[in-house]
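ok trying this again, last paste got cut off
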Amino acid sequence: MTDRDQDDYTEPTKHEDEAGLWRHLEDDDAPSAAAGESPKPQLTQSQVKRLTAPMIGMIITMGVLSLVLLALWFMNPEPDVTYSRDENVPEAASWAASVTEYEPISPQVPEDWSANYARWETRAEHGVQVWEVGYTTAAVNFVGFAQTDQANPAWVNEETRQAPATGTETVQGLEFEVREEGDRRYLVLDAEHNTIDGTTVVIGGDAGEEEFSQAVEAIIEAIGQEVPENE
């Protein structure tokens, strides 16, 4: 280097050196910055195992529980025959006869009908003691009756579910008041029109016309009939 060259040479300042260094570093990082991507976290194999272990355990538990429930289901299959309640009406009527002043009605209904209930009850709110029976018919409809010698308007309204009167109907010489509400029909034989034993009888249900008529005929024929005593 000549003296002239030495005179022209100027040593870089510290600021310029630092600027050059930063430019160098920026050039090295340029591809990563341009991509605009942040580094992705990497999980170790042991971390992956710790994260998946609870999920695998839960799946195994659910599988075992499903197998247990399936085994219980096979051990307790649904019965082939559906249970249907069928009360012994004559027997219940015989018990009721021991506490009533009249013969409880025990009608001879078709054999394929079943009795849902046959009971002697006290309706304290109305001061009425009642003998009542309800049947499920062959067509899976309902028809039943209630009988008492202590009837009053409040009790009759309750038995007929406040259904309005729509007329009268005479069956086997007995005059019934007809009440109807929706698909339900009621025949009310009050004490003054019951020339057989003087009780009030309310017959009602949603059975079809034929089945309803069968019930009414059977009930009328059983009014006042002596109930055999239980042996």
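PB: full thing came through this time. The radius of gyration is 46 Å.
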